[in-house]
Write a structure and sequence with these properties.
Helix content: 10-25%
Shape: elongated
Largest sheet: 8 strands, mixed
Amino acid sequence: MSNPPYPINNAPPPYLPDPNAQNPYGQQNFPYPPSPYGNQQAPMGPSAPYPPQTNLPYGMPPYSQQQQQPGYPNAYPPQGPYQNTPQTSLYPYGNNPSPMGPPPPYLSNEERGLSQGGAGSAYGGSEGFLWSLQDKHQFLEVRGDGTEIYYSGRDHQVVENDELGPIVRADRPIPRQGQFYFEVSIVDTGENNEIAVGICTRSAPLDQFPGWVPSSFGYHGDDGNIFCESQDATYLPEKPFKSGYPIGVLLDFNARTLTFSRKKKDVQTVELQDHHMNQDFYPCVGISSPGAVVCLTVPISSGGSSPVSPQQGYQPSPYPGNYPPPQQPYQQSPVSEAPPSHGGLLSNCRGNKKALLIGINYFGQGGELRGCINDVNNIKSLVQSRGFSDDPSHMVILTDDQRDPRFQPTRENIIEGMLWLVSEAQPNDSLFFHYSGHGSQKMDQDSDEVDGSDETIVPLDYKSAGDIVDDEMNALLVQQLPRGARLTAIFDSCHSATALDLPFIYDCNGQPKQQKYSRKTAGMDLLQSGLSLKGGNMFDKLSGAKKAYSTLSALANEGKAQDITAQTRSTQADAIMFSGCKDYQTSADTNVSGYGATGAASYAFIDAVRTGENLTFTELLAKMRDTLNGEYEQKIQMSTGFPTDMNIPFIF
C-alpha cells in the first residue's frame, strides 16, 4: 500500500510479544495445527465427492487452436459461389440447376425425421443439442434449461460502438453425415431485430454474427439477408424476422448445401465448398437487439449424454440466475479437438475450506499503515459468511497487533502459513489467501517479468529477513496445489498485479490479454533517464544510464518474459487472484465511512461480494473497479493459472 498522509507513530506495538507463550499444538514455533491424518493423505470424504478428472473442465478453450481454412479468402472467383442476387426459384443461380443438382425441397420436420429423433435424426434416438453455457458471449444469457437465448441490453452502447454481434454456440458439433436440420422460434425480436441464425466453427469469435467471418453462415433478421463469410450480404432475399416466426437451417452433407427457411418456406440455399465439408460446424444464434429472445425448438436434447465426454470439474452453481441449478438435465461437452496442454480443472468449492489472512500495519516503523488489520477483520467476517470456519485448523490470522510471536506476520511465519494453507489440499477444496500490507519491487533475476522487476510483499521483519518475492509465492501457493483445487488470492498492496505470477490476465470484459510493460511507464523512465544524462552530475548520469539500459532491456525482453511465465508459472489448479493495482501503481490505504481505516482494494472486494448477487468473475472485477473509479488511480487486476472462462459464477 502507499503511505497515507499521517505522521509516523513512534510508539511501540500495542501488545508486546509474549516470550513465554506456549504452542497449543505441540509443534515447532508456528501456529499451525497438526494434520488429523498424520502423514497420510487426507481422504476426500462426502464433502469432496468429485475425484480428479483427466479431461477438460469446461466446454470452450479461450484460445482456439483451429487453423484458418484453406483457400480463404481467395478460394472463390470474384462473383464467388455466392451470387449477390436474391433467389427467385428453386435454384440459387436463377433458373439453371447448379452443378451439384438442385437443393432438396423443403420437407416437414416429420418427413425429415428430425424433430422426434427418427431415423434421420443427426444425433440419433431422441437426442438433440442445447445452447452452451460456456461457449457464449458474456452479454447473452442462456435460459430455459439451455433452450432459450436472451439479450437484456447489457452494455448495448459498447455493442453499438464496436459493432459487435454476440453469439451463442450449441453444446456439440453437427455430425458430418447426411442431413441435419435445426429450428428456432423468434419469441421476441427486441428493439431493433438484430438477430442472426446460422452455423459456424469453433474458430469464429464470439462477438461476430454468423456469416461475418470465415467458416460461418448466417440469416440476419434485421434486413432479412444471407451472409456468407463476409461483412457484406451475399444474398438479398430481404425477408426479415418477426416475433413468432420459426427460422430453420438445413445442412445437407450429401448435396453440400446449406438452406435457410422462414415460416416453413425456403428462403435461400447456399452451395458449400470442399473444405467446408471437413469442418465441425455448430448451430449458433447471434443477438444484439435489447430484449430479444430466441428459443430452440428442433431438435432439443432429452438429457442424454453428449456425443463427446461430458464436462468435468466445474459443477453448476447452486445460485439462481444465468446459470441453471444443479438438477439441470444436461451437461456441457468439451471440444472435440485434443485438449490444450494446460489441462486445468475448475473447483466446485464444496470440499475443505481453509483461509490464511495477513494484515500488517507496521506499528512504529516508517511508512506505518492504518487499515490493514481492519481489512483482515472485515475479510474474516466475509469468508465466515461463505462457510469458512475460524477454528485453528481452518483459519490462521497473522497480524502485528498480536502478542503471540507465532502469529506475528514475519517472513518465516508467512511462509509457514502459505505451506499450511496448501498442505493436504484436494480437488474441489477452497483455499482463501488475503494479504493487506506494503508491496514493493526488486530487480528480476530470471527474465520472467515483462517490466524487468519482481513484485514482493513486505513482512513485518523485512529489514532483517527481506521481502517475499513473487517467484517464491508462486512456488509456495500455486505450484503445490493439486489439479482442481481452488486458491482465491486477494493482494491489497502496491505493485501487486503479478504478485503470484499467474500467466493469464483478463480485461474488464473477461477476455484474456497479454501482460505488457506499460509504455507510459517506460516512456517516463526513459524521459527521466534522458534528463539525468543531460543535466545531472556524474552520479546522476550513471544512474540515468543504468535506468535507461534497464528500461530498454525490459522492452526487448517482453516476449521472452511472457513465454517463460506461461511455461513455468501456469498450473492445473484453479488459482484466481485479484490484486489491488497494476505492477507500476500503488494501492491506497484510506478511510471509508462504515468501514473505518481500510485498504481500497479490500473494501472494494468486500463491498462487491456483499452487495452483488450471483456475480460472475467478470462482473465482480467490474464492480470492484467501479467502486474505486474516480477516487483512486489504481486499477484492480484479475489473473488465473490456466485459461479460464471468467463468465461463470464467482464462488469460493
